[in-house]
Design goal:
It contains 7 helices and 6 strands. By secondary structure, it is α+β, with helices and mostly antiparallel strands. It folds into 2 domains: about 50 residues, no CATH class; about 120 residues, Endonuclease, Chain A, CATH 3.40.960.10. The strands form 2 sheets. Strands 3-4-5-6 form a 4-stranded mixed β-sheet, sandwiched between helices. The protein has a two-stranded antiparallel sheet with strand order 1-2.
């Protein structure tokens, strides 16, 4: 424990990365973590932060899907970014986790609108049941869901714009289940 002012100055200088000399202090370059005596990490070894703050499997899978979109999802993202000169750019989140167990393809957090792009797998009975459960969970969390097929995304852009605007309006006019008022207490022009 430092006892004198000089000892305290030297202690603070060492802490800030400065080195003390008899004629004052001099700023020195800090060494990287591997050269300062701390334990070096090995590639492939889990770090302490990963151990404490480990992400769930669903979040990791959402990251994977974000990095590897389907062609219809990539096309719809391009469509959203170009719509009205980019008015919706950065207003949505791709592959968003809701309820801790479901992933929606696109999510607009401002108005709580989720857009699902359904491929051919969604025509099977098992997937239809999963979609019903996802929609029920979304409703429980006060989220409006718009379901589009791959052919709708690849087809007529005018019709796609109309469907998106209708869903946007219904999400705006929907009453918030928590406070009982519409999200934006204003009426939309007809």
């Amino acid at each position: 424990m430092p006892r004198s002012k000089a000892d305290w100055d030297a202690w603070f200088a060492r802490r800030e990365g400065k080195q003390t000399y008899s004629k004052g202090t001099k700023k020195v370059k800090k060494l990287p973590a591997t050269q300062t005596g701390r334990r070096a990490s090995v590639i492939g070894e889990r770090s302490y932060q990963e151990h404490v703050f480990q992400r769930s499997h669903i979040e990791k899978y959402a990251d994977y899907r974000r990095a590897n979109p389907t062609p219809a999802e990539a096309e719809f993202q391009r469509f959203l970014n170009e719509l009205n000169g980019g008015a919706l750019r950065r207003k949505f989140v791709r592959e968003h986790v809701i309820s801790g167990k479901w992933i929606v393809d696109f999510f607009f957090p401002d108005i709580r609108l989720a857009v699902e792009i359904d491929g051919s797998i969604h025509l099977t009975g098992i997937q239809k049941n999963k979609d019903k459960m996802k929609d029920a969970d979304a409703k429980r969390f006060d989220i409006t869901v718009l379901r589009l097929t791959n052919s709708e995304v690849a087809g007529n852009k005018q019709r796609l714009t109309v469907k998106l605007r209708e869903a946007w309006r219904s999400a705006l006019q929907r009453e918030n289940q928590i406070i009982g008022k519409p999200y934006y207490g204003q009426k939309l022009p007809e």
